[in-house]
Fold this protein.
Amino acid sequence: MPWWAWMLVGIAVLGLIALVGWSTYRRRRSDRLRQAFGPEYDRVVSTTGDQRGAESELESRQKRRARLDIRPLSVAARGRYAEAWRDAQGRFVDSPSDAVGEAETEDLRQAMVHYRTLFEVLLGIPEGERPPDRTEERPDERLRETGT
């Protein structure tokens, strides 16, 4: 076999190795993002319609979050927030007509239920310890994007 044929075989083998390496990297990236984001991964992929673009968005979210100075609440602060939330919930979510009257009550109640879920996630309350009468809703995307 002439030397140039060996060169072509070598280039083809190197190309194949690069292709396998790139494919493995992409699969691991997708698996890592799926594990980190759970159902949010599928939602972003379906919203963008492009897996590569969705994964870039999710990686940028991870980088933004890594730059935040997220510290756990002290036990006292956590207790204060939890108590304030129980008070607000008692006044509004559990008895919306007493708190607001008839105007837009259901929309406001749904918003409070939505933010109750977010609040519980931020407090780190395990799903099994959350009140059973909740409507499962995803936290507002705008809050996640701004890092609050």
